[in-house]
């Protein structure tokens, strides 16, 4: 046999030996750095192939094998995934300050005018100032209470229309009704007008834009994952065009609503969120120290747009889907139990954090610039803390004083720590009012021929900030007439 044929026959063994050597070297390096465990990676893509269409579920499976603190390489980006309450507490309480920044991702950077919003801006003086305005002025209990009439009018109008539809006893798309309602409330609270009064913005376009913006906000660009050549993929799959298109549509919309608020002689029933922010800008101009401009206002509007509509709606949608699979529970739903029903364990992963200074997590080193993702979905299903974790059982919250505002780390629907949700009160009053009305005013039946077990509970795949139901919930409303 000649030299080259012999070399070719040995090539596979040579490659295996080289890979083993490479693996050993990497393991030794990891042990030296004492990084969290990682499943084996592939060249270039790292662990990307191990994330299925439901990343929170893939991460839970990997965590069951490798432990609750897991390091994955998404292309070139190292991300630490946390899937236990103890480790989440270490991140969001013990090391909150060291880990409470946000990664400067390009897509969301574009939508937020270079991170001028609250939710995606890096930790620092600006974030502190804008958070203070949001907490004290925009989402405070007093402000949310001042919008009570908006919530009540919108819910009453939905109940009226459902009551008319119930006469024909035909199935209706309840999911779409729920999203329309939370959209209408946010539209009025933030922008001061109803959909009907908006000349160039119909409901369909509004939801499409929210969904597009959520998708952009939750995604890395290929260039971020594969520096140097990822831009070719971004060009081919239309990523850059999508970001640009969504940005332009949002900017036009936000500019339009701000201009509408600045029109001389505009009549208003009540100060909405834009009025409040324009008032703060005016005050700053008078005091000669302006840092909140129209651009900052637009960035905050994006957070309200993303944070306020889908979140409250999907809580109600999942609760109704679960209840119609348990008719006996649906029947005994009272105001008290509607409060418990909306405590859904459907928050997927929290918004990514970025580490600012080194700390240790379960004994592993976590270095600055590492991204951390808390898998709230997996934690809320951990049999260590929850009996029958997969079962919908709102009774588990009765006489159980588990805190849902970020003090108990086995249940994190609103996150925790410095970056916890500032819209908790606004979100909970909306979902509670809607759910209570849907349960009080109607009996809900499944369409003819459908059984409880036929209700599709599949989660929508893909990278998104929220966890949608894959198919809409279709039910028949039967008006409840008290005897
Ligand atoms: C039921 C409704 C809601 C749910 C389930 C929810 C959930 C969350 C979660 C899980 C986070 C991430 C927390 C973390 O990373 O630790 C968050 C952050 C945030 N939410 Fe909400 N939210 C809701 C309603 C709202 C509303 C109504 C608004 C505003 C109108 C809002 C605005 C925000 C903002 C701005 C942040 C980012 C805060 C920061 O980074 O400083 N949310 N929310």
From TrEMBL:
Entry GO MF terms: heme binding; iron ion binding; monooxygenase activity; oxidoreductase activity, acting on paired donors, with incorporation or reduction of molecular oxygen
Protein name per Swiss-Prot or TrEMBL: Cytochrome P450
Binding site for heme: 421
Transmembrane intervals: 6-22, 300-320
Family: Belongs to the cytochrome P450 family.
Domain of life, source organism: Eukaryota
Pfam families: p450
This protein's UniProt keywords: Heme, Iron, Membrane, Metal-binding, Monooxygenase, Oxidoreductase, Transmembrane, Transmembrane helix
Cofactor(s) this protein requires: heme
